[in-house]
Amino acid sequence: MKASRFCPKVKCLDGFEVSIQASDMHYCTPRTCDAFKYTEVELGYPSHPSGKIFIEDDLLLRPFAELDADDNDMGIYHHVPVALVRELLARHGGVASGGMPAGIYLNSAGYPVPELR
Q1: Distance CA 19, CA 9 (A)
Q2: Domain locations in the chain?
Q3: Which parts of the chain are beta strand (E)?
Q4: Each residue of 37-82: pLDDT tens digit?
Q5: Within 14-81, where are the H helices?
């Protein structure tokens, strides 16, 4: 078994940041380390430096939110389909820096792009 690895937080061109993770310790599919391609990943703590909450982001992610006993959003989003992750990143201008698991983006031949670090 390979050790779990964590990707650095992704920062988008507009300043939006989010953690995108996938391993045997995260809410993802497949739930393993170093998969060739993930179909669902875990997102954590999306934020914008302006402090602004984007209602579109909230509506997109809310169905995947981990909630506490009082139904407050805990900032972790389980099994988010990679198509929604792509949409979220595109809404914020695309990725400027950071890292993400393999398979979030596909190359022109339809193969997963290796993880970004």
Answers
A1: 4
A2: 10-97
A3: 10-12, 17-21, 40-47, 65-67, 73-81, 95-97
A4: 899 999 999 988 887 777 788 888 989 998 876 666 678 999 999 9
A5: 55-61
The CA distance from 102 to 63, in Å, is 23
Residue 84 zone, left/alpha/beta (φ > 0; ψ -120 to 50; rest):
alpha
Is the torsion defined by CA of 78, 7, 96, 94 positive or negative? negative
33, two tokens? 């380390």
Statement: the pTM of the whole predicted model exceeds 0.90: no
Spatial neighbors of 82 by CB under 8 A, at least 6 apart, are 38, 39, 40, 41, 103, 104
